[in-house]
Amino acid sequence: MSDLEIFKLGISLAQALQGEEEAIADIKKLYDKHPEMFKNLQDVVKTIQEVASEPEKITKAHRSGAILAAKRLVEPDKMGEIAVENDNGTNVIFHANKKREKEFDRIKNSLVETPTPSTHRDLPTGELMDKPSGANALSATSKDIISNSQAESQGANSKQAKIKALQDEVKKISEKNKKKDLNDKGLDRNG
């Protein structure tokens, strides 16, 4: 195995990069950056192949113009991620690592969502794009924070308003039906 490897990219990742359907990576360099995450060089290759060929999430990477792709791996309880940039028409994988699978759900700001059988989503892609990701996911402004009692109070007020509106509607319908019944019997004196 050479230090440089060429990987086939999935269609959605290639489109996001607006380049070729292949990417090149310096496997030894990637391994040396994160030796604690990979068993050996072959493990780096296997991780990149899995993620690059069928990423589940594709989003902007921290580096300007780069793309981050992630996928739950076949290896139990693991996810892989790669960062790729288009360098004058050549896609270069400059980052690869493996993490615990629970980190996968923190990658939310997807450019492209590619559903696979292992993807479990409660939100459609459009809603995911409005959510912060990375360090911003845990940040909140004070206006976004409400106490449980405030939330319960707002929920109770909302329910009470809905109940009141329904009661008013039922009352209107009931009065209308009562008038109709009186008209049908010829007893309505107002109409």
Describe the protein's architecture and organization.
The protein is α+β, with helices and mostly antiparallel strands and 191 residues long. Helix content is 37%, strand content 23%. The chain has 5 helices and 7 strands, in the order βαβααβββββαα. A hairpin with a 5-residue loop joins strand 3 (57-60) and strand 4 (66-72).
Output the number of helix runs: 5
Please estimate the helix content: 25-40%
Biggest sheet architecture? 7 strands, mixed
**How would you sum up the global shape?**
elongated
Strand order of the largest sheet: 1-2-6-5-4-3-7
Keyword list:
191 residues; alpha+beta; 2 domains; seven-stranded mixed beta sheet; 5 helices; 7 strands; elongated
Question: Can you summarize this structure?
Answer:
The chain is 37% helix and 23% strand. With 191 residues, it is an alpha+beta fold.
Helix and strand arrangement:
Blueprint: E1 4-8, H1 11-17, E2 22-26, H2 27-33, H3 41-53, E3 57-60, E4 66-72, E5 78-87, E6 90-100, E7 112-113, H4 125-129, H5 148-185
Parallel strand pairs: 2-6
Antiparallel strand pairs: 1-2, 3-4, 3-7, 4-5, 5-6
